[in-house]
Amino acid sequence: MPDETVLVVNSGSSSLKYELRDATSGLRLGRGIVSRIGHDGTSLRYQVTGSEPIERPLPGASYAEAIAAMFGRFDEAGARLDGLVGAGHRVVHGGTEFSAPVVVDDDVLARIDALSSLAPLHNPVAVECIRLMKERDPQLPQVAVFDTAFHATLPWEAYSFAIPQDLAAEHQMRRYGFHGTSVEYVTGRTAALLGIPLAEINLIVCHLGNGASITAVEGGRSVDTSMGFTPLSGLVMGTRAGDFDASAVMFLQDSVGMTTAEVATLLERRSGLLGLTGDSDMAVVRDRAERGDEDALAALRLVAYRIRQYIGAYLATVPGVHAVVFTAGIGENDADLRQEVCGPLGHLGLEIDPERNTARVPDEGIVVGGGPIRVAVVPTDEEAEIAHHTVALVRTGSPARPGAATDHPEAKEHV
Predict the structure, then answer these.
(1) Distance (Å, rounded) from C-alpha 30 to C-alpha 49?
(2) Beta-bridge mates of residue 43
(3) Would you give the DSSP letter of residue 147?
(4) Catalytic residue among 82, 106, 107, 147
(5) Assigned domain for 13 exists
(6) Active-site residue flag, 75
(7) H and E: helices and strands count for the chain
(8) Any idea what the Cα angle at residue 250 is, between residues 246 and 256, rounded to 5°?
(9) Residue 273 and residue 396 in one domain
(10) What average pLDDT score do residues 86-94 get?
(11) DSSP labels for 317-346?
């Protein structure tokens, strides 16, 4: 066990994921998750490097009990928690308040809490977990790393809504973008993979998981992204509708009689792949399509079509794109989707090598298309990015430079 470690915490609406990393190399030492917090069947699953995973029930555990169990499991495993330099927390929404990671004091915590209306399922939980950890160890620095921060560089024309600007300003209504920590990591990793300086790299990054977004990157900085005021807009996702006419929302309320809450549930939890096919898991939908299921085949066409639309738009936005990059669970593992997206875009300079596209993706990534605009698959590691920002802030008072987490190839090692 190294002398100095950093804890990475990702609190969800009913879960607590965490990792312990070497503070110098970024190497993952252990990780765990407490699932179904506040519900029946709460459990903790933890794995130390080189060991088999351990699962234990935590019936009806709260977040306080989940954090206590997390630290208790570290103690059992002999982890050197006395060497912790800090804890880095994924915080979904930083609003216009936070454009970079920050060490959390009472004022910062209150400001994050005040943004809860912009991310009601996530920010309150992050605030609670940070507060609980500050109470447990007041001397341990707590660092907030925001999903929205990487997109703080969006130009006005990319983030603005064409509504009265006094209304937009009063209620902080604008495009924020999400998945920024992942896109920041992947941007740095792709620059290294292609041998292009980070400050010169131009990319279209497709973060495709159950939640999905596309980001246009120019000179290593985000200049447009598909998610907006919330994570609902943009691509077809597991349960989210993606782009949807606002007038249709009013129709559902006025003519169908749905409440605001019912429309929100429809668009966020009952749409996307789930609404199209009855299944939200892309692997299940893919399997159904391979067996000739018409609903699944149609859904996959729509998913690929929407991705191509955004790629085309961002090719028009960013001059001299070096590569289209696929990342996250679906982006990294669904070779068929990559072919379905890029195959029809040969006239725009994208080519896919079928053999390379189906090859194993190494941790550092792989180029699967060598046309004028390369196609790459680059595994993401948001926890590495959070860990490096945390260590940099604690040691120097400043966040890590963009892409710093990619300096250590071993940081991608899995337990």
Answers:
(1) 6
(2) 35, 57
(3) T
(4) 147
(5) yes
(6) no
(7) 15, 14
(8) 135
(9) no
(10) 93
(11) HSTT--EEEEEHHHHHH-HHHHHHHHGGGG
- Residue numbers in the known binding site for substrate are 90
Domain that holds residue 26: 5-146+385-412
Q: Is 179 left (phi over 0), alpha (psi -120 to 50) or beta?
A: left
Q: Looking at the DSSP assignment, which residues form a beta bridge with residue 82?
A: none
**Number of structural domains in the chain:** 2
What is the per-residue DSSP string for 1-38? --S-EEEEEEE-SS-EEEEEEETTT--EEEEEEEESTT
CB 92 within 8 A of CB 14: no
Instruction: Note the pTM of the prediction, 2 decimals.
Output: 0.91
Q: Are residues 324 and 221 in the same domain?
A: yes
d(CA 85, CA 347): 51
46 and 122 belong to one structural domain: yes
Distance CA 195, CA 367 (A): 12
Asked whether residue 367 falls in the same domain as residue 398, the answer is: no
| Together in a domain, 369 and 389 | no
- Does 73 lie in the same domain as 25? yes
Report the SS3 class of residue 175.
coil
As a whole number, mean pLDDT of residues 61-88 equals 79
Same domain, 347 and 363: yes
Distance (Å, whole) CA 130 – CA 113: 11
- Residue 187 is assigned to a structural domain of this protein: no
Calpha distance 118→133 (Å, rounded): 23
Residues making up the binding site: 10, 17, 90, 207-211, 329-333, 382
Name the one residue in this structure whose structure tokens are 């246009």: 216
The per-residue pLDDT for range 107-158, each reduced to its tens digit, is: 999 999 998 888 887 889 899 999 999 998 899 999 999 999 999 999 999 9
